[in-house]
Amino acid sequence: MKINLKQLIICIAIPLLVGGLAAYITRDAMVSFGQLNQPPLSPPGFLFPIVWTILYTLMGIASYLILSSDKPKEEINNAIFVYAIQLIVNFFWSIFFFRLEWYLFAFFWLLLLWAFIIYTIVTFYRISKPAAYLLIPYLLWVTFAGYLNLAITLLN
């Protein structure tokens, strides 16, 4: 398979830009977040941007594998549509949790994100197993984020 470097870069850039925009919008909220009671297993703050950069990069590579597949165009378009929806849901979680401090609402929004990630994995799996596997760390991290989100809701 020949790699279309321009398309790969665009596919990686899209989730990174979505995550970067969410981080920019919520940047001032990190001070108040740091003052919250944190649950056990809370990672240090510096770890979050590192993990998210890796996860967004994996998402981008996964979407590239879908777009460059030789499967029917309709199937590819459907998978990319589901992927785009979950990326939008991901974007708004940061706003709800960090900016607006709607912790309980954010937890339920995160459950919605979790469901969309699973749906994305399933639709990607039908087209490219490696693309689906690249999203598993994302699902695991969002599961862990759910624990953190709910614990912060209960502790604060």
Portion in helices = over 70%
Number of strands: 0
* Cα end-to-end separation: 51 Å
Note poorly predicted spans: none
User: What amount of the residues lies in strands?
Assistant: under 5%
Structure report:
The protein has helices spanning 5-25, 30-34, 47-67, 73-99, 103-127, 129-134, 136-155. The chain has 156 residues and is mainly alpha-helical. Helices cover 80% and strands 0% of the residues. It starts with a helix and ends with a helix. The protein has one domain (5-37, 50-155).
Features:
single chain; 156 residues; mainly alpha; elongated
Short description:
This protein is mainly alpha-helical and 156 residues long. It has helices spanning 5-25, 30-34, 47-67, 73-99, 103-127, 129-134, 136-155.
Protein topology:
Blueprint: H1 5-25, H2 30-34, H3 47-67, H4 73-99, H5 103-127, H6 129-134, H7 136-155
Helix pairs in contact: 1-3, 1-4, 4-5, 5-7
